[in-house]
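Final report, Chapter 2: Outcomes

The project's central promise was a pipeline that accepts a single protein chain and returns its three-dimensional structure in a standardized token representation, suitable for archiving and comparison. That pipeline is now operational. To close this chapter, we reproduce one record exactly as it appears in the project archive, with the input sequence first and the structure output second.
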Amino acid sequence: MNSTTKPVNQKAWFLILPVLVCVAFSAILPLMTVVNYSVQDIISPDRRVFVGTEWFAAVMRDEELHAALLRQLVFSCAVLAVEIPLGIALALSMPAQGWKSSAVLVTVALSLLIPWNVVGTIWQLFGRSDIGLFGRAMGWLGIDYSYTGNATQAWLTVLLMDVWHWTPLVALLAFAGLRSIPDAYYQAARIDGASKFAVFRYIQLPKMRGVLMIAVLLRFMDSFMIYTEPFVLTGGGPGNATTFLSQYLTQKAVGQFDLGPAAAFSLIYFLIILLLCFVLYNWMQRVGTQQPEVEQ
């Protein structure tokens, strides 16, 4: 029997052509420009010299970069260590349904609507010892608080600001995961006389693994690229206490106008984020596929 093959309609490719054009202008072309700058020494607009991997080698030997990378890793790990458990706890304490649930959801999500530069300005005023509520409260407690003069306090203030701004995102994702759990699981747990901790350990936490993976990846990537909030709040100071990788890159490219090293560093920065996210995602995938051990 002869089989006839229908002709394939290729006109659908024209529908994604605008997307491809937008991606090319917004991502691919700028990336190629950065790659071009990273292998050249731009002496003037009309004069440039090919240097190969010289800028990459110079960046890798930069001790300030090593310090900024360590500072960034510690900050991102601290963000995950605080925001993930706090977001889960907040989601567990939120009402499950009714008008109270809607009101709490709107209230929790308010901080997510504030632009990043406004968040930095809010905490800049909030932490002032003369007019800021937080700064005055620290003074009343006998703590000599100054986020502009003390490196440790500046770092902790940036961390507290990020926790205030982004913990609601984790809480909303965890709340969505909790609401997707069928009531049959809770009914079976009540019949078995399971404690609240057992319900959380063997029902809620495993069912939330998917949304928590998304929360961890989103918060890690965003915290690893943080720029606006600490720049507005502390300007990277005091000293280099809150100078993270993105600020260090901006100083190279804009402040010092070293386009070659800045381009090389931006590519390394991009690859570091991809590598860490790939490792983190695969690790969470392996953990997520492991079934929890059920007590007998």
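Archive annotation: DSSP finds 13 helices and two strands in the chain.
This record, like all others produced under the grant, will remain available to the consortium after the project formally closes.
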